[in-house]
Design brief:
471 residues, alpha/beta, TIM Barrel, 8-stranded parallel beta barrel, 11 strands, globular
């Protein structure tokens, strides 16, 4: 890192931050909050060296202010022991678009409810098509926390670090290495919560549940040991397992038993998972009808209740995790908390809200759709209407149009952010995470972690073709 680049980045902050012997100090938080937008932009769109310096400064400023990326592991285990009482469900937000502005909206909504039981996440497939590597995503979220005056443990999660079934069948060693590399990249970026998804490798044609789940629990145990070997000192990364691939048949208590018996026998003495993802009737992104609207989903909340209770009672976990829920009717969200669901993952609806918002220019939206028609035409099924095709594939245009959205006028981004804040506040209220600040701080002790000043540009895992992975 050149002193010139560092000087430019400090100038971006208007003199609000000083540097002494590789440690930062905040001189004027009011100026910092006004100027942090520029640093967030550099962390995403600067050249390699400017990105590296901006990301390092964001991380170190956050440490100085008491904003600490953290693991939710101990909170979930406390729930498994019955020490976290009351019905609440932790929302995990996949911010595919406008990560900085969307995270700001979420922090404002959480602050209004005194809520800390909140996760920001991104999946393996989203990292690809949304063009957001872990370090970029973490920097955008942390910068948003600084902007909105957030303090305390901040949960950033790798969602669906998934084994591609076709890729694994073609080359198991290569696919395992890819996931290991992504895990290392994510932990380095501050992702201290990682959901391992090898449920894609469950083989329902096998005669017994143990045989069906064997590859799944074996790889989950292997990745668990790998994570434990590389997690930072003072951090027990929260790890999630998965027994039922989203979109397929509903999970059963017997499958959970088969998975946990095998997993426990193979992970050794190391700390295990803190939650378990199951299937209850949802699909990622919802099921789109010919007119572009979404079909009603028959989610089985009894399965969620039964599996969450069993996960806590028999295995000391935080409970069951629900994926693919953002497109459900808002009138159903209170049922997640009532069923004792541990965590719910929310993504597509917020992407839709951003793309279709009245503040998003028609010309930009139409350009995105034209790009999809020209570049993702091979994914169109013969039976797809144009509305169905666009709805299912427009996520692929997020990366190519990322800069255009970040460059929208401030007024447009503020309008989108205000709409998202209203949505988040409602969902957070339905999931009953209001007033969780003291509860989270009681169980989560996030250490202060400093990073060395970058010597050069950004580093990361090579981009990959993520077709076929869950979103």
């Amino acid at each position: 890192m050149t002193s010139h680049t560092l000087g430019l980045m400090l100038d971006t902050l208007g003199g609000s931050v000083a540097l002494k012997e590789s440690r930062v100090s905040v001189r004027d938080e009011k100026i910092l909050i006004r100027q942090i937008d520029g640093l967030a932009y550099e962390a995403v769109f600067g050249d390699a060296e400017r990105k590296a310096v901006a990301r390092w400064l964001i991380w170190e400023v956050a440490q100085e202010l008491g904003i600490h990326p953290a693991s939710i592991h101990d909170f979930y285990l406390a729930r498994g022991r019955g020490e976290v009482t009351g019905l609440l469900t932790v929302p995990a937000l996949n911010l595919r678009m406008l990560a900085y502005d969307s995270a700001r909206a979420a922090f404002r909504a959480a602050r209004s409810l005194d809520a800390l039981a909140l996760i920001f996440e991104i999946s393996r497939s989203e990292i690809g098509y949304a063009d957001q590597r872990p370090a970029e995503y973490a920097s955008a979220v942390i910068a948003a926390a600084i902007k909105e005056g957030f303090r305390g443990p901040l949960f950033i999660q790798g969602d669906h670090f998934q084994a591609g079934a076709k890729k694994y069948a073609a080359s198991p060693e290569s696919e395992v290495k890819t996931i290991r590399d992504l895990i290392l990249e994510a932990i380095e970026a501050g992702f201290y919560n990682i959901d391992i998804d090898t449920s894609t490798l469950v083989d329902l044609s096998k005669p017994t549940l143990d045989e069906q789940q064997k590859v799944n629990y074996g790889l989950c145990a292997e990745f668990t040991r790998f994570i434990r070997e590389h997690e930072p000192k003072g951090v027990t990364v929260s790890i999630g397992g998965e027994i039922g691939e989203v979109g397929l048949k509903n999970s059963s208590p017997e499958e959970l038993d088969a998975f946990m018996r095998g997993y426990s026998s193979m992970k050794g003495e190391t700390a295990g998972i803190s939650k378990i993802s199951i299937q209850t009737g949802t699909h990622h992104g919802g099921v789109v009808l010919p007119d572009g609207s979404l079909a009603k989903v028959a989610i089985d909340f009894d399965v969620l209740r039964t599996m969450s209770e069993k996960a806590r009672r028999d295995y000391g976990l935080g409970g069951a995790v629900q994926h693919g829920a953002s497109t459900l009717p808002e009138t159903l969200f209170h049922k997640f908390a009532e069923a004792g669901t541990c965590e719910v993952h929310l993504a597509t609806a917020y992407m839709t809200q951003t793309i279709e918002h009245q503040a998003t220019p028609d010309a930009l939206r139409n350009e995105m759709y034209d790009w999809v028609r020209a570049n993702v035409a091979d994914e169109r099924k013969p039976t797809d209407t144009d509305a169905q095709f666009i709805y299912k594939t427009r996520k692929k245009s997020i990366g190519p149009f990322k800069k255009q959205f970040w460059s929208l006028p401030d007024q447009a981004k503020a309008a989108i952010g205000a709409s998202l804040e209203k949505t988040f506040a409602f969902i957070f209220g339905q999931l009953r995470i209001g007033g969780t600040s003291d509860l989270v701080k009681r169980f989560v002790k996030a250490p202060e972690i400093h990073k060395p000043m970058p010597a050069g540009g950004t580093k990361g895992v090579k981009g990959e073709n993520v077709d076929g992975l869950a979103d």
